[in-house]
Design goal:
The chain is α/β, with parallel strands linked by helices. 49% of the residues lie in helices and 11% in strands. The protein has a four-stranded parallel β-sheet.
Length: 177
């Protein structure tokens, strides 16, 4: 089970445990390991496999990742994952040989990697882009500039609105001048 504090709660962990879940991955932004304390310690007290999951690792150096991982370890995590959940890292940054896997690279994958945002943002960016007449790529790039992370999906619509407003102001200024 993957749990993001603020979306999932300790009560959700208890429910998952009652349903037979034996492993939980508690995921936070690479700078926010401290918000995982109650979730990791609660599940660990039950003697279950508890993993700390640091997302968006491409945005930090090894020292910061290690510091955040040590926090999760101190809360009881018996394993720490450091992930580039946005797909932003360059091939040279990845030590695994990917040549044997089928790799699909399309416009969406390139934009997500360039922007450094979550794959889960794509559908919402496309929907809000269509709703407000803003290209989804522009929305995703702006979300990356703002360093928006999982759990902040409400920012997608706000960003689209702000971009649409800015486009209208530019169009109005061009028409007037």
């Amino acid at each position: 089970m993957l749990l993001i504090p603020g979306i999932g709660t300790v009560e959700h962990l208890k429910l998952a445990y009652d349903c037979g879940v034996a492993t939980v991955r508690v995921a936070t932004h690479y700078t926010e390991a401290d918000v995982s304390e109650q979730h990791i310690s609660s599940f660990r007290r039950q003697g279950l496999d508890t993993v700390g999951f640091l997302m968006m690792a491409h945005m930090a150096g090894p020292e910061e990742i290690a510091r955040q991982g040590k926090l999760m370890e101190s809360y009881g995590a018996n394993c720490i994952y450091c992930t580039d959940s946005a797909g932003h890292m360059l091939p040279i940054d990845v030590t695994e040989d990917l040549m044997e896997r089928a790799i699909r690279i399309d416009r969406d994958a390139l934009i997500l990697g360039y922007a450094g945002v979550y794959l889960t943002f794509l559908l919402f960016a496309k929907r809000t882009g269509a709703k407000y007449g803003v290209p989804s790529a522009d929305i995703l790039v702006e979300l990356g500039r703002l360093k928006v992370v999982g759990g902040q999906e409400d920012m997608i619509e706000d960003t689209a609105l702000n971009l649409a407003r800015a486009r209208r102001q530019i169009a109005g200024a061009s028409a007037a001048g």
